Amino acid sequence: MARARVVLSWSTGKDSAWALHRLRATDGVEVVGLLATVNTRHGRVAMHATRRALLEAQARAAGLPLHIVPLPWPCPNGTYEQAMRSALAALRAEGVTHLAFGDLFLEDVRAFREGLLDGTGIAPLFPLWGADTARLAREMIAAGVEAVVTCVDPRRLPRALAGARYDEGFLDRLPAGADPCGENGEFHTCVLAGPMLRGRIAARPGPVVERDGFVFADLVPDPAPQALAPASGP
Question: What is the DSSP string of 97-145?
């Protein structure tokens, strides 16, 4: 039986990174690339606010080709769907059979993704779907995932958590009712190291700003972002 040729929808955060880790451990699956949307006005991944240079460094560290879908800002839903369908058609022409997502439990998000793929010849995969998020969060941290909280919804979390390391201390500081993986939009992250990457990506904290109702903590890449620092831990 032919192996599934999978491209992973890549947000730069911990869930998509862990989805890559899971997929690589799955029989019959070959991960052949990452797919990311980039806001062309600011050169960043939406919501995670990850700079394009860090996104590209992650792809190099993962050892995978990066497929970027450029999006305007603001981006109406129709424009997003058209851009994604063009990208999907190109992937299908390259023999891609599946597009994987790091979603955990939001049924409406899953339905939207499935609808987007309908008729493209590319099937959806959800390798983390239904996972207990409290257990999953600690599993990722214990396995050596290093991530920084780059976006916080101040209606749900304290502003001071923007820029924090995603670690046990962060989980302990979450208010009651906040999802440990941020699946309800409480926060977003950028991964700098983990078992799915070949080394640590060098980055330093940048300014913390409040914009459009969210608090963003910038991460500034190393002057030579292609150089990977040795990873520590598991």
Answer: -EEE----S-HHHHHHHHHHHTTTT-EEE-TTTT--HHHHHHHHHHTT-
pLDDT in tens, 76-126: 999 999 999 999 999 999 999 999 999 999 999 999 999 999 999 999 999
Query: What is the maximal distance between C-alpha atoms in the chain?
Result: 51
Place of tokens 């992250």: 189
Which range marks the domain in which residue 119 is found? 4-228
The span from the first CA to the last CA of the chain, in angstroms, equals: 34
**5 touches 180 (CB < 8 A):** no
Spatial contact of 152 and 159, defined as CB atoms under 8 Å apart: yes
User: How many domains would you assign to the chain?
Assistant: 1
| Inside any domain, residue 165 | yes
For residue 182, tell me if it sits in a domain: yes
Sequence-distant (6+) residues with CB within 8 A of 88 are 99, 116, 117, 120, 122
What pLDDT, on the 0 to 100 scale, is given for residue 228? 45
Average pLDDT of the segment spanning 57-65 = 98
CATH code of the domain covering residue 42: 3.40.50.620
Give pLDDT tens digits for 26-44.
Answer: 999 999 999 999 999 889 9
Angle at 167 between CA 205 and CA 133, to 5 degrees: 125
Q: How far apart are CA 20 and CA 229, in angstroms?
A: 21
**Residue 109 · residue 103 · CB < 8 Å:** yes
Residue 39 within any structural domain of the chain: yes
Q: Is residue 47 part of a domain?
A: yes
DSSP alpha helix (H) spans, 29-106: 52-62, 77-93
